[in-house]
């Protein structure tokens, strides 16, 4: 890009959940802007496939398969990336998900909540961002610079029916983002920043059947969301790219502890 503040070429950016719809979309965009990308994913086959696909167009891409909850795995990844590229400039915590038992289904109430699934969802969404933030954040603190970008949700700040476990864990992500941002800036200097994006409703593999019928029309839930989104549509994955680019670039050098909604106006609208 013409403006050097927005230049992210040669930045080393690690993305957890890098094989998911949003994570892989971010990875491809950042590669196209000249960044060096490290993809982390749970499933070895998916990671290899994504990396092979990216390498047809881009040179600087690495992939590792393992759990974001496994500190030893993350430490090993950190060491390999530093050996290869010398540093890590940004971490995007895009890993996350939901489980049936942590959802209040049709005809159920809060008292049907499965606590084991609730804990697993909390572990994946919250611990799955906290642990990578500690491992790679320590490297950034030692470097004196670095940016962590968490992925929050519209479910963090309001009671969206059914997704109780997901909501609780994303609300915790908002708090952790602010907490980690202040901790790093106060104790390790202004070169360390932590922010989050809060996507509205995007079609992903996880929610496709919840929002769309087989013929592509909206489900009842999908229609309710559209009715409460001033822009009257779902988001496209590439509509996250601008905010992600800005937040990891030097153009956002005075931005930390922020949670940026990317939601077509959903969070601003009361429904009346």
UniProtKB/TrEMBL annotation:
Transmembrane segments: none annotated. The keyword Transmembrane helix does not apply. NCBIfam families: PRK08277.1. This is SDR family oxidoreductase. Belongs to the short-chain dehydrogenases/reductases (SDR) family. InterPro entries: NAD(P)-bd_dom_sf (IPR036291), Sc_DH/Rdtase_CS (IPR020904), SDR_fam (IPR002347). One of its GO terms (biological process) is carbohydrate metabolic process. The keyword Signal does not apply. It comes from the Bacteria. Keywords: Oxidoreductase. GO terms for molecular function: oxidoreductase activity, acting on the CH-OH group of donors, NAD or NADP as acceptor.
């Amino acid at each position: 890009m013409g403006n050097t503040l927005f230049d992210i070429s040669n930045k080393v950016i690690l993305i957890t959940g890098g094989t998911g719809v949003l994570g892989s979309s971010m990875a491809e965009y950042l590669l196209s802007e000249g960044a060096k990308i490290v993809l982390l994913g749970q499933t070895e086959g998916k990671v290899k496939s994504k990396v092979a696909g990216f390498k047809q167009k881009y040179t600087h891409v690495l992939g590792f398969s393992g759990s974001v909850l496994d500190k030893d795995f993350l430490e090993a990844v950190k060491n390999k990336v530093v050996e290869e590229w010398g540093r890590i400039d940004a971490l995007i915590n895009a890993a996350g998900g939901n489980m049936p038992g942590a959802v209040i289904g049709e005809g159920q109430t809060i008292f049907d909540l499965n606590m084991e699934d609730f804990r697993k969802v909390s572990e994946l969404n919250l611990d799955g961002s906290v642990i990578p933030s500690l491992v790679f954040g320590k490297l950034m603190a030692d470097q004196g610079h670095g940016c962590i970008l968490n992925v929050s949700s519209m479910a963090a700040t309001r009671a969206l029916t059914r997704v109780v476990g997901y909501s609780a864990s994303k609300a915790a992500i908002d708090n952790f983002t602010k907490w980690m941002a202040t901790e790093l800036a106060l104790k390790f200097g202004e070169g360390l920043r932590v922010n989050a994006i809060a996507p509205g409703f995007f079609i992903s593999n996880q929610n496709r059947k919840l929002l769309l019928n087989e013929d592509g029309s909206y489900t009842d839930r999908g229609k309710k969301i559209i009715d409460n989104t001033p822009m009257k549509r779902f988001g496209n994955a590439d509509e996250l790219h601008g905010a992600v680019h800005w937040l990891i670039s030097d153009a956002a050098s005075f931005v930390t502890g922020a949670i940026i909604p990317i939601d077509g106006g959903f969070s601003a609208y009361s429904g009346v």
